[in-house]
Amino acid sequence: MRDEDIQKFSQVYRDGLLNDTLPFWFPRCVDTEQGGFFTALDRDGAIIDTDKGVWQQGRISWLLATLYNTVEQRPEWLAWSRAGITFLKQHGFDTDGRMFFQVIRDGRPLRKRRYVFSEAFAALAFAAYAKASGDEEAATQARNLFDNFLRFTTTPGLLPPKGIIQTRPAKGIAYPMITINVAQQLRECLGDTELFSDRIDRCIAEIRTDFVHPELECVLETVGPGGEFIDHFDGRTLNPGHAIEAAWFILHEAQYRGGDADLIALGCRMLEWMWARGWDREYGGLLYFVDVKGLPVQEYWHDMKFWWPHNEAIIATLLAYRMTGNETYAAWHRQVHDWAYAHFPDPEYGDWFGYLHRDGSVSAPLKGNMWKGPFHLPRMQWYCWRLLNDMIARSDIT
Amino acid sequence: MRDEDIQKFSQVYRDGLLNDTLPFWFPRCVDTEQGGFFTALDRDGAIIDTDKGVWQQGRISWLLATLYNTVEQRPEWLAWSRAGITFLKQHGFDTDGRMFFQVIRDGRPLRKRRYVFSEAFAALAFAAYAKASGDEEAATQARNLFDNFLRFTTTPGLLPPKGIIQTRPAKGIAYPMITINVAQQLRECLGDTELFSDRIDRCIAEIRTDFVHPELECVLETVGPGGEFIDHFDGRTLNPGHAIEAAWFILHEAQYRGGDADLIALGCRMLEWMWARGWDREYGGLLYFVDVKGLPVQEYWHDMKFWWPHNEAIIATLLAYRMTGNETYAAWHRQVHDWAYAHFPDPEYGDWFGYLHRDGSVSAPLKGNMWKGPFHLPRMQWYCWRLLNDMIARSDIT
Prior knowledge:
The structure is a homodimer. Chain A is mostly helical. Chain A is built from 13 helices and 14 strands. In chain A, the strands form six sheets. A three-stranded antiparallel sheet of chain A has the order 3-4-5. A three-stranded antiparallel sheet of chain A has the order 12-13-14. In chain A, a hairpin with a 4-residue loop joins strand 7 and strand 8. The interface between A and B is large, with 42 and 42 residues.
């Protein structure tokens, strides 16, 4: 990557974060009356649904506290993060200790799900907020949430099955990969290195052994309990963006460990295989789902282009380049960057569209809903900006 | 509608059913080794997943027995229908009397769902098979299944909620409309007119009172327990194809009752409002979901063109024309017919594609999965062929 590209990318990500994404979302997503954050925003930022997703409350609190911890100690970032933490404490938890999935504006519960990602994202939020504020109780709560998440995701039978009879048991890559990410963030914010690093080791081992399949040259999304390939719709369905996100969590770990060659090789292999699977050679961009055998996928939106796989691929390609110096990854970074920036940003109102058709045209113009909020995009801008700055600092670029 | 159009449409539907749809699916979808039917067929008919959807077992058995009852007493239709009934009896039921949602090839259960549509479609199958075979036990089982379906769908609290806390109770149009359809078919096959007609009356009253909203000029898909409009994503999301299907169930009832003017008016109003909401003025065809206020829809596939809403609209427009003589409906019939036949049929391997992008291009080329099997398309071909034949018989068309 040439020096001027490094400078250019760095500026695009920094300016995008500080002058576009954050001003689009804040302060309008903050519910100053009833607490927490709205995320159902129309193209122009108008709030079109006041229900609040619990995932997003955690993710947004994490983002704000992380920016406070790593970019600049802006008082409003800390105050908004605290508002999310307070809302989570007051309204996020059921009496059984599990968290809700969705609440109405005033915090009363609307939906609870069998999986425990609300807990994972809340753990991120409490940890980053604890570091930003020095609040020891928040640190304790972050650890408790992570323990709870681990207990539920690793104890067989603890989560009620979703109407699935155990004729064909299966597991997804989501739990080990989210565990890696949460453990990395908790380690970053709270210390306790060995505990978290040990858990990360175990999850990377599980991904390597059970989900990474050299004979298929891919990362499977859903496998049998021992990593068996399940030759049915569910087992054949690959999620390239998700696997590429897992790849950069592993590359991040490689970097943390001073350039662990084995982890670099694993992360790069995952990126390469899933790039080959997911990149749309006809229209560009990353397909949402593909079948491992090239058969039709059952999910209706399989060939749509969502914003977040592109965010994750932008990080993964840059990090792979940073860890290896391999210009192929730099070229892929430019490729996915260029396609994403040509299609996702909304030139009129700012931020990114989330949902494009396969050909890159906009399918739904909204900026947020239960699933899209200020998370994947600003995390990518923040992560890549800092990574590029680090590259600039270590070189003679002026 | 001109006489030659009536003749032409009649022939298209008849030939499509007998020379295209049925030969594509049969006998290849029949599992002669382990019983029941496959539905996960690739574009060329190759079986790409051997799991069996319980909905489809019932729907296919119903179709075959209905063709036997109304078109021609082909022995293979009865034999295949019996094979489906046998498979359902052996593998469709859990020990609690509820039915499964999905089983593996040999019939062992894979998934069970909280809703009870497996029961509704099995009731259709047992009733039509009872009429075709004279099997009294099948007739009894059809009545029991319908009673069970009613018990679960009308007894508050009997079905475990899907992680939805009752902060904002809601109900969908699916239960009353499917009840109408099942009651109509059971009445047709088993008699017991008053019992079924009474139940139909109640469901039509519920749809009229709670789901048809004149102030919004639309049929809502999801409402509060008393028909309240819910101004959130879920409550705003309209499903035009579904409401148009409900409209023709009501028009069918109007026809059965000798042209009940009140029911004709209701069915036509539902069709008109949802045609206005669902027809895509830019690309043609029916959008899958639209927002009642024109806001963005949260479901990713909202603007895709699925086969089944077009099947239902083809029936509804023809039946509305048949019941009123209003040429507007004949024009709509031609319009949706022309768009559907220009985009859905697969000229190479036969049958219809199921999943198109908004612009009419093919998204997934498969012919069947857990949701698409030989049901909506052949039901439309069968229903419209017979309706047009009835029109021909009552006129002087030669």
